[in-house]
Design goal:
It comes from Gordonia amicalis. This protein has 14 helices and 14 strands. The chain is an alpha+beta fold and 467 residues long. The longest helix is centred in the first third of the chain and has 23 residues.
């Protein structure tokens, strides 16, 4: 007799397959054409074929995920302890304990400076998937066998959430979907959490704000509604400045970009390099400067929407003077505003250049003050003859400084020689593609000149600014 353990899974056939963070495989229905109904939280999805064992497994794990949702969102530490299996590694259990602690109700002072995250939606559920079945690793399965587990499963799971709630209804962000795999084990009629993708030898799922200890939250009203500032321990100086600077920074970005973005944001101030690294892990669509990075979960280009955008500040932000922090904040907000209209591989000379232009606008009176390294190069007879390539922006000292200053100065040149409306038009055309031919056409459409003429005019402008 073939063991069923670790080899069966529900196929949610009528749902759309989500590809975010998931490698798809081939799969299909079995020979039966019967149809059953499986509850996945608040939704009901048809599955084919109707297999009693498979259906009971899906229903049992759905109850586990519902209980996990309730325990985390209620800050119920005892419930977390009951839901996590004894074989789980401490780091896995600590993740849920930390999340529950950050969700626990706390006294609210009324000034919105020490609250907790508010959610319009928050739930864990089984994910629709067509991936090939993943087996529980042999070493993990051995531990479960010894403990008396009657079944185990690598379950495809989604976390679906959106910030919002009673205190922050204006956040109203698009739903964020985070996919993962949970190893779960059955004991009698109960299922328990054993591990996640990391237990399967894969990369851990992206760290969420509430999965790091010591989280606090402040709501700030900006032009588009409620913005959120989250922070951890020992970040108070930066926090105070961010709360004060954010409304004006949103207005400054809107003055350039217009009202076609949300005009609100989620900012995160970190207190250690480890916190920053976990929140901006590779693969999260990171763009930004040395003092901060903008991450996002998903971009829907046809609908011009982006979900899960967060501006994450390094611990060094605590040491920045308020005017410098304001430049960084406006720069990153420009990325937020433009994200849904920016190709994933858009050239950095336009994306970083325009962000720098918006960030620095009105902060200098002399060109050398804004671009000291570029000024020195031009004075030495090294006027740029080409736009900086993406590799030049790597954070490696003077080279990256010249790349950023060159990109900024190109945007400043276009705004000065033409106007800001045409600078935005240039961005929308060039940043929409990685194809050099289409970029060339976009330059011609926006400015009426080709790339070579644009670069030549920029060089002459630079030499005039330096003189």
């Amino acid at each position: 007799m073939v063991s069923l353990r670790g080899r069966w899974r529900p196929t949610l056939a009528s749902a759309v397959v989500l590809l975010i963070g998931v490698t798809t495989g081939c799969g299909g229905p079995g020979p039966s054409s019967n149809v059953a109904s499986v509850s996945t939280g608040s939704t009901t999805t048809s599955t084919t074929p109707a297999n009693v064992y498979e259906q009971q497994r899906a229903e049992g794990v759905t109850r586990l995920l519902d209980d996990l949702t309730t325990a985390v969102s209620a800050g119920d530490l005892r419930a977390i302890g009951r839901l996590v299996d004894d074989t789980a590694i401490p780091a896995f259990e600590n993740r849920w304990v930390t999340a529950a602690e950050n969700f626990r109700p706390r006294p609210f002072s009324g000034d919105e400076s020490d609250g907790r995250l508010q959610f319009a939606r928050f739930r864990y559920q089984l994910a629709p998937t067509e991936e090939a079945e993943t087996l529980v690793p042999a070493d993990v399965q051995g531990l479960l066998d010894v403990k008396g587990s009657s079944d185990s499963w690598v379950a495809p799971v989604e976390l679906r959430y959106a910030l919002g709630g009673e205190r922050a209804p204006g956040v109203d962000e698009p739903e964020v979907v985070v996919t993962n795999q949970f190893v779960v084990a059955r004991y009698g009629d109960e299922w328990k959490l054993v591990g996640d993708a990391e237990a399967l030898g894969g990369e851990p799922s992206p760290t969420q704000l509430w999965e790091l200890p010591g989280l606090s939250v402040s709501d700030v009203e900006t032009a588009g509604g409620t913005s959120v500032i989250a922070w951890y321990l020992r970040t108070n100086p930066a926090l105070a400045n961010l709360r004060r600077l954010l409304p004006d920074a949103v207005d400054a970005v809107t003055a350039f970009w217009g009202n076609s973005w949300d005009r609100r944001a989620v900012l995160v101030a970190t207190s250690t390099p480890k916190e920053f690294d976990e929140l901006v892990a590779p693969g999260r669509g990171v763009t930004g400067t040395a003092a901060a990075a903008t991450v996002y979960s998903r971009v829907d280009f046809p609908r011009r929407t982006a979900s899960g955008q967060r501006i994450v500040f390094t611990p060094a932000a605590d040491d920045l003077a308020a005017p410098t922090l304001a430049v960084v904040l406006r720069h990153e907000l420009t990325h937020v505003a433009a994200r849904a209209q920016t190709a994933l591989d858009a050239p950095l000379w336009i994306t970083e250049g325009v962000a720098e232009y918006v960030g620095r606008k009105g902060t200098y009176t002399r060109f050398p003050d804004a671009a000291p390294d570029l000024t020195e190069a031009v004075r030495a007879g090294n006027t740029p003859t080409a736009l900086p390539d993406d590799a030049a922006f790597a954070m490696n000292g003077q080279n990256s400084q010249i790349a950023y200053q060159s990109a900024w100065s190109m945007a400043a040149y276009v705004a000065d020689r033409y106007d800001e409306a045409r600078l935005k038009r240039l961005y929308l055309g060039v940043a929409a593609t990685s194809d050099p031919a289409r970029q060339e056409a976009a330059i011609q459409t926006a400015l009426g000149v080709g790339r070579d003429e644009l670069v030549a005019g920029w060089g002459r402008w630079l030499e005039g600014q330096v003189r």
